[in-house]
């Protein structure tokens, strides 16, 4: 069963084949658990997320479309989304947007930059040059995983304004870093 393709395992999963389900879990359990553990930092919660990932894969195996992504990408996307949901549920301490600059400082510091250090400095400078409301919106989204709706609520701004701030900030940072595209 181990020489079976990923797509065949998903098809077997969709049809209820117990051997395919076992082989599928064995093939991907380390990757799924590793991703969940890396994102969540707690073994017990990572195990729950991994289990839920495989349950969702089983429930939605019939909807898997190999033209959209490979099996590993599809499965790890499920795990990533579940881990993000857990992180959002776990947030107990509200974050004051005015403190973001201070909280983000260690993450944006050059430190022992090593390889890619100049790029980190350029990124830090680009983010620092943003207007305060755009910088807060971008950092809340990128570093803390807040949605545009949540950022709007935190900032006391309409959803469209929060989306515009995030999009404008991203565009300005891309321009500052010399990137092109949308």
Account of the protein in words:
The protein is mainly alpha-helical and 182 residues long. It has 2 domains: 6-90, Rna Polymerase Sigma Factor, Chain: A; 97-176, Winged helix-like DNA-binding domain superfamily/Winged helix DNA-binding domain (Arc Repressor Mutant, subunit A, Orthogonal Bundle), CATH 1.10.10.10. Helices cover 71% and strands 0% of the residues. The protein has helices spanning 6-15, 18-40, 43-60, 71-90, 100-108, 117-128, 132-142, 148-155, 159-176. Helix 2 (18-40) crosses helix 4 (71-90) and helix 8 (148-155) packs across helix 9. The longest helix has 23 residues, at 18-40. The radius of gyration is 20 Å and the shape is elongated.
**What is the count of helical runs?**
9
Report the structural category: mainly alpha
State the shape: elongated
| Main beta sheet strand tally, sense and closure | none
Estimate the mean pLDDT confidence: 82
CATH topology of the largest domain: Rna Polymerase Sigma Factor, Chain: A
Helix content: over 70%
Based on DSSP secondary structure assignment, what is the total number of beta strands?
A: 0
CATH class of the largest domain: Mainly Alpha
Chart the SSEs and their pairings.
Blueprint: H1 6-15, H2 18-40, H3 43-60, H4 71-90, H5 100-108, H6 117-128, H7 132-142, H8 148-155, H9 159-176
């Amino acid at each position: 069963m181990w020489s079976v393709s990923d797509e065949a395992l998903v098809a077997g999963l969709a049809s209820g084949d117990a051997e395919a389900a076992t082989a599928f879990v064995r093939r991907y359990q380390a990757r799924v658990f590793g991703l969940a553990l890396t994102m969540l930092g707690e073994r017990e919660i990572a195990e729950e997320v991994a289990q839920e990932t495989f349950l969702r894969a089983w429930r939605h195996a019939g909807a898997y479309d190999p033209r959209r992504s490979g099996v590993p990408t599809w499965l790890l996307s499920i795990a990533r989304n579940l881990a993000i949901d857990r992180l959002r549920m776990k947030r107990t301490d509200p974050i004051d947007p005015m403190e973001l600059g201070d909280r983000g400082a260690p993450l944006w510091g050059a430190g022992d930059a090593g390889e890619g250090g100049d790029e980190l400095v350029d990124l830090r400078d680009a983010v620092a040059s943003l207007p305060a409301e755009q910088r807060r919106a971008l950092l809340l989204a990128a570093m803390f995983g807040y949605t545009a709706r949540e950022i709007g609520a935190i900032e006391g701004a309409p959803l469209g304004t929060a989306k515009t701030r995030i999009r404008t900030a991203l565009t300005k940072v891309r321009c500052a870093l010399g990137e092109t595209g949308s």
